[in-house]
Amino acid sequence: KEQLALFRNHLKIKVYGTDIPNPFRSFEGLGKQYQVEPYLQRNILASGFKKPTPIQMQAIPVILHGRDIMAMAPTGSGKTMAFVLPILHDLKGPEKVGYRAVIISPTRELATQASIYINAKESPNSSGSIFNQIKKLSVGRKFKVCMLTKATAATQGQAPHLRQKYDILISTPLRLVHAIQQEKMELDQYVSHKLLEQGFLEQTDEIFAACSHPSLQKSLFSATLPSGVEALANTFMRSPIRIVIGSKNA
Ligand code: ADP
Questions:
Q1: If you measure from the C-alpha of residue 2 to the centroid of ligand 1, how many angstroms do you get, rounded to a whole number?
Q2: Which parts of the sequence form the motif Q motif (predicted)?
């Protein structure tokens, strides 16, 4: 127990909450402990990731245990993989039943990803966008990912029969609210995860109202967590575990 405290301390991992799963130390160890499928292990290695970053060490076991999470870690610290890996692990493989995971991310970040989406086949290694990291980590499984942004066509992925073929939805907050309100998209039908990144707060009420399904697991990853956001997140999460990496916001 003392060793665990030292280990977290050394990596500047702060944790708050009850029954917090231990951090893992290597991707090999993670694979053994959580039966992560070999294809995911291979893709991690193929990405050139030799060892997990601190946020990955602590956040991935928490999500794999089915717990809600609020995670703060600096930009560039590997947050994307920390939620993409557990989603892919949980979804197992593609199914034609509609979105089973929803990732919400700010407009600014998705704007750069839209062009990567189009060029995904030509430049699989360009940058660490959410879409790209899903593509890299899911090689060998034909997951279908739908991107909803202001720039994408209004109809894309919206009609129920179109939605069916997708496994994962990536959306901006505004676009998702539009889909919920105007197109009567029901999030609680198939969604098993809901992952939020910073910058979504303006539209939270509608999004949370559409995510009332009790089995929905929720994660919030951000570089900072203003106290107002934390209070709000606490109202819709079930006994969340809070993780803070680095000295900020401690
Ligand atoms: P954040 O979301 O925290 O801003 P990213 O998830 O975009 O950070 O990761 C930043 C960069 O680090 C990306 O290029 C990503 O591919 C890379 N990266 C993520 N995890 C690892 C790892 N375990 N080892 C090496 N590089 C990693």
A1: 29
A2: 29-57
